[in-house]
Each structure stands twice: as structure tokens, then as C-alpha cells.
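Lab notebook, design round three. We kept the backbone fixed and only want residue identities now. Task for the bench partner: fill in a sequence for the structure below.
Input C-alpha cells:
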């Protein structure tokens, strides 16, 4: 939903422009007050606190405490009274206590921040130049499990936060046609298929993904005792000469196609359409940025697109449903139903036309 905010006057626009120039280091100040324990201290010690008390309580220099909190006051992460004492601000409370905000902050800091420095190069070269901060891969997915542990932890928490919470809700839609088999393309760590196997005792499942992801998925599914019902297929879904037949009742793709360019999505859908029948249900779960109820959600999704640009693959994004439907129109598939899932997700069902 565009143009939600009123147009700024010249003075407001100039002020906003000045603030934008310092946003990157203000963000680092916010990360610091959280990770140094300053926000936690202010949250536990209600009211306003002397700088020297905060410093002593955390073994952080008075200089460090003051310079960070002075800046954080400007973005309402902290508050200052007339006696030059500090308390946690309204924004700071959510940065400390809201799980979505914490997940986003850790993802941006640990996964995106260094690579975002290379955004201009990434746009010019149409590849994720920022990925070199972690390794020499063409895409993040090739080296996902080789990322530093703290980076991988933040990536997984971000990925799961925006997908796991709709799995249970999606089961009724998936099993409304009483499927005997399901294929999860881009199965990641196997969490969705574990949910499927828990929901139905007879379903047969297949996960298609890259080698590294399949190793993790296999381990997790084996631990849950579902190995006898799940098949793993290593496949580059962009391969024009697919060596796998999509002979199944349901094909599931959750936040998978946003990892590809428009042309690649068209290729993937056409590859799938070549080996299915008119009864095969293709279910696509996405977080379209133009379908959000709150501006903050739209903002986060557009920000995630910049992660794809600099870090993940250099050519994909979080799509609008408007653009996504235009891609589908170029394929042999039609949208036959549309459902909303949770706060952010849209589930499209496609069939052969």
C-alpha cells in the first residue's frame, strides 16, 4: 500500500535527509545499547538512572554509556530527564522485548550489515557482491551451513520467524483435497515436512533442495522418526533439463520463489507444469509487500529485498502480488484460489490451465 504518509514540506524533508545520512551508525548505537546490556539495565531499574550507576552496574565506561544513550534519545530508544539521568524509551522497550524486532535486528546486524556496504556494486553487477564478506559462493544458499555460527543462527531465526507460524494454519488447506503425497520444493531444514508428517500419518513426502540443505533436513526428519515417509532429492530447480518428475498430489513452495528473479520464477513454474496433471495443486506461500496491513510490515519486506540484492543472490526480491501475478500469466498455470495466512502471508493455489 503506497503513499501512506503525507508529503513532507521542504523543512521536514531536509531534516529527514540529514537523519538518513546518520541512520547506519545510529543503528549500530542501538545494537550496542542492547548487546552491552544497557537497555536491560534500564528496563530492570525502573525510572531514571545516573550514568555512573549504569556504568558501574555493567562494567562499561561512563563515556560509552553517555555517548550511546545521548544518541538513542533522538530515536526514543532512551529518555533523559532534567537531571541528566536516563531511562528506557518506548522504542527501546520494543527493541528489548519484542521478538519480531529482536529477530529483525539480529538479522540485519549479523547477516546484512557488512554486505550492504557493497549494494552499489551489487546493483551494477547484478550479483550479491556483499556475499564475499562471508565466502566465495555465487549465492548464499550454496554456503548457508558454512556461515559463521552466529550468522547462521540469526539467518535461521529470521527465516523461521516469517514461515513457521503459518505451517499449522496451512494444514487444513493442504489436506482439504485428501492428498496422498506432497513435494516441498526448497524444504530448507525440513520443519514444514515434519509438520505435515505430524498432521497426517499416511502422507508420503519429498523434499527437493540443494545438497547442503538436504543434509540438515535429513538429520532433522530422522530425529523425528519420519525417514520412512520422506524422500530427499538433490536438484537445481533452475535446470532446464529437469531430471525429476513432479508426480504428486500437492506441490508446496513456501517463501521459495522470492529467492529468484522474475525470469527464473517463470522458468521454474513452467518446468513444474511440464510434469503435472490438472488435478495437481501447486500451493505458493509468499509475503507480498503490497498485501500488508501495517506500514512497518511493508517496510521490513522492502528492506528484505535489499538483503537479496547484496547478500543472497543479487537478482530477487520480496515481490508485490501485482508483479507476481504478471509472472504467473506468462506460464501454463492459473491462480484458482487465494487465502490469507497469519498476519503477513498470502497462499496462492495454481493449477494447469
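Proposed sequence:
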Amino acid at each position: 500500500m503506497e503513499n501512506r504518509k503525507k508529503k513532507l514540506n521542504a523543512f521536514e524533508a531536509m531534516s529527514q535527509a540529514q537523519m538518513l545520512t546518520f541512520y547506519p551508525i545510529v543503528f549500530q548505537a542501538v545494537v550496542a545499547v542492547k548487546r552491552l546490556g544497557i537497555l536491560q539495565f534500564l528496563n530492570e531499574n525502573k525510572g531514571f538512572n545516573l550514568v555512573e550507576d549504569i556504568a558501574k552496574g555493567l562494567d562499561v565506561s561512563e563515556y560509552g554509556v553517555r555517548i550511546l544513550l545521548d544518541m538513542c534519545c533522538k530515536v526514543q530508544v532512551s529518555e533523559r530527564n532534567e537531571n541528566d539521568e536516563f531511562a528506557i524509551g518506548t522504542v527501546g522497550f520494543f527493541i528489548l522485548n519484542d521478538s519480531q524486532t529482536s529477530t529483525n535486528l539480529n538479522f540485519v546486524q549479523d547477516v546484512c550489515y557488512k554486505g550492504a556496504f557493497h549494494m552499489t556494486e551489487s546493483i551494477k553487477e547484478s550479483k550479491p557482491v556483499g556475499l564475499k564478506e562471508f565466502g566465495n559462493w555465487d549465492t548464499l544458499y550454496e554456503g548457508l551451513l558454512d556461515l559463521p555460527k552466529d550468522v547462521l543462527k540469526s539467518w535461521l531465526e529470521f527465516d523461521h520467524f516469517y514461515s513457521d507460524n503459518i505451517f499449522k494454519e496451512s494444514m487444513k488447506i493442504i489436506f482439504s483435497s485428501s492428498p496422498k503425497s506432497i513435494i516441498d520444493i526448497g524444504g530448507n531444514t525440513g520443519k514444514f515436512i515434519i509438520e505435515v508428517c505430524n498432521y497426517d500419518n499416511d502422507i508420503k513426502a519429498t523434499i527437493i533442495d540443494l545438497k547442503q540443505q538436504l543434509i540438515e533436513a535429513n538429520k532433522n526428519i530422522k530425529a523425528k522418526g519420519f525417514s520412512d515417509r520422506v524422500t530427499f532429492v538433490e536438484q537445481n530447480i533452475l535446470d532446464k533439463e529437469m531430471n525429476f518428475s513432479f508426480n504428486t498430489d500437492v506441490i508446496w513452495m513456501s517463501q521459495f520463489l522470492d529467492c529468484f528473479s522474475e525470469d527464473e520464477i517463470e522458468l521454474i513454474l513452467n518446468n513444474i507444469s511440464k510434469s503435472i496433471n490438472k488435478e495437481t495443486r501447486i500451493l505458493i506461500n509468499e509475503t507480498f509487500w503490497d498485501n500488508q496491513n501495517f506500514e512497518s510490515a511493508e517496510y521490513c519486506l522492502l528492506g528484505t529485498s535489499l538483503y537479496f540484492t547484496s547478500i543472497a543472490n543479487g537478482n530477487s526480491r520480496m515481490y508485490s502480488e501485482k508483479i507476481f501475478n504478471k509472472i504467473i500469466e506468462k506460464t501454463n498455470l492459473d491462480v484458482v484460489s487465494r487465502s490469507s495466512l497469519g498476519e503477513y502471508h498470502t497462499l496462492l493455489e495454481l493449477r494447469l490451465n
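Keep this in mind before ordering anything: The two ends are 30 Å apart (CA to CA).
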